Amino acid sequence: MGITRSSKQKHRLTGGRMPIHRKKRKFEMGRQPSMTKLGEQKVVRVRGRGSGYKYRALKLNEGNFMWVSEGVSRKCKILEVLYNASNNELVRTQTLVKNCIVSVDPTPFKYYWYIHYSEIKVNRLPEIKDPEIKKKLDDKKNKLQKSHPKKELLDKLNHFFELMNKGRLLHALLQDQDKLVKLMDIYLKEKNLNST
Questions:
Q1: d(CA 145, CA 32)
Q2: Do 60 and 136 meet the contact criterion of CB atoms below 8 Å apart?
Q3: 138 φ/ψ sector (left φ>0, alpha ψ -120 to 50, else beta)
Q4: Cβ distance 36 to 59 under 8 Å?
Q5: Do 70 and 38 fall within a single domain?
Q6: How far apart are the C-alpha atoms of 127 and 120, rounded to whole Å?
Q7: How many CB atoms are located within 10 Å of the residue 101 CB?
Q8: The model's pTM
């Protein structure tokens, strides 16, 4: 029996059964969920109607993450799946689904803070061995660096910067994996995550 998106097998609003007067149709066809796993990127192409294609991610190890309060997004490596409210099995199998909590490598965000703000909140930046890249980074820093506009509130975010300096930031995936991963960060306290 194939997967269908038809509503013919559903009940009426009043509770009665609908008479099924025709067979399933190709245009009502559904497909199996991609169940995207954490691993080296593997994306397959799925043919749609009208010679269109969908790109379905079977494995992913990085994504576009957004630091909402700063309004910047960076490509970060996903380290592991930590929590899923719907099913612990998805944590065990490291499956990436919408609204699961993942830990990511914060290095791109560390560099953003290091270049743009004079407040010293991040440490343990990776050493850059290429002198040309290092010079470009220093030039950018000299040109863009300033004091943070809300520096008096930064003390309240110590927990966030601690997580960043430990090398793991917590994020929630906010878009389906079928359309490749577009991620957005939500500030989560470690205590809340451990208590659930």
A1: 49
A2: no
A3: alpha
A4: yes
A5: yes
A6: 17
A7: 19
A8: 0.76
131-150 confidence digits (pLDDT tens) = 888 888 888 878 788 787 77
Residues 64, 78 within the same domain: yes
Q: Residue 10, Cβ neighbours under 10 Å: how many?
A: 9
Taking the C-alpha atoms of residue 54 and residue 6, their distance in angstroms, rounded to an integer, is 21
142-183, pLDDT tens digit by residue? 878 878 777 777 777 787 888 888 888 888 887 654 443 333
Q: Domain range spanning residue 39?
A: 34-101+171-186
Rounded CA-CA distance 121/72 in Å is 18
CATH of the domain at 74: 3.10.290.70
Q: Where are the beta strands (DSSP E) in 69-120?
A: 72-83, 101-104
Biggest distance spanned by C-alpha atoms of the chain:
74
Terminal-residue alpha carbon distance, the chain = 38
Single-letter residue type at 137: L
Alpha helices, H only, 16-167 = 89-92, 107-116, 131-144, 158-166
> Are the C-beta atoms of residues 149 and 137 closer than 8 Å to each other?
no
All residues at 6 or more sequence positions from 28 whose CB lies less than 8 Å from its CB, including other chains: 4, 5, 6
Number of C-beta neighbours around residue 37 at 10 A: 17
The span from the CA of 67 to the CA of 73, in Å, is 6
Q: Which residues pair with 54 in a beta bridge?
A: 46
3-state secondary structure of 49: helix
